[in-house]
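Hi support team,

I submitted a single chain yesterday and got back a structure, but I'm not sure I'm reading the token output correctly. Could someone confirm the output below corresponds to the sequence I sent? I've pasted both exactly as they appear in my results page.

Thanks,
R.
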Amino acid sequence: MKYLFGLLLLGVVSFSARAEEISEAAVTGDWVITSPVYTDQDANDLWEFHDGNFVQNLDGQRIPSGTYKVKNGDIVCQYWTIDVLEFGGGRMKAEMGGVVYTLEKQ
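Hi R., thanks for writing in. Yes, this is the structure output for that exact sequence:
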């Protein structure tokens, strides 16, 4: 019985973490990085997803990071994969390069 309850709870947690279906249309736009923020200048850092291209806007420097596609619930970029941990309600929690980011859609 404990095993069944654990599986049920895991299913509910997994479902709530992805309250909204992730798609290229849902990802398209500008996402402000709300965490981690190391300095005051970091408060304006963005991930930009437009026309199939991913651009990191860090400290005012726009860094083109290639093309992207949404595949199996993650964002697969030209050079790496962004593991989407939570997505929905204009918020995203994602891991890239060993760092977990929290972002809010503009």
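A quick pointer for reading it: The helical segments are 2-17, 24-27. Let us know if anything else looks off.

Best,
Support desk
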